[in-house]
Amino acid sequence: IQLVQSGAELRNPGASVKVSCKASGYTFINYYIDWVRQAPGQGLEWMGRIDPEDGGTKCAQEFQGRVTFTADTSTSTAYVERSSLRSEDTTVYYCVLSGYWGQGTQVTVSS
Q1: pLDDT, tens digit, for every residue of 29-62?
Q2: Could you tell me how many helices (H) and strands (E) the chain has, helices first?
Q3: pLDDT tens digit string along 72-106?
Q4: Is the torsion defined by CA of 81, 46, 92, 110 positive or negative?
Q5: SS3 per-residue string spanning 4-40
Q6: Vertex 55, ends 52 and 57: CA angle to 5°?
């Protein structure tokens, strides 16, 4: 099983960002994919998850209204999109599948 994420991103405050996680080595629709973030100097924080089979999602209350989880079954790729970015949204995003982790994607929000 491999989870390969997209590269680092730099955004201005107020912008949006979309991070991808391409999965391989298993049947994509059979497992949820979780998204976790880690801000500088902070611990890991669960953001939410998506069921690729039906697109159903769950989202941590803190991120509701500011994050979107999607999945493309044709490419076995999951996405997390953040909107209205603030400087405190500078963080590393990880996709996770049953103990398998993507390599992380650094998103930096700075003017």
Answers
A1: 999 999 999 999 999 999 999 999 999 999 999 9
A2: 0, 11
A3: 999 999 999 999 999 999 999 999 999 999 999 99
A4: positive
A5: EECCCEEECCCCCEEEEEEEECCCHHHCCEEEEEECC
A6: 105
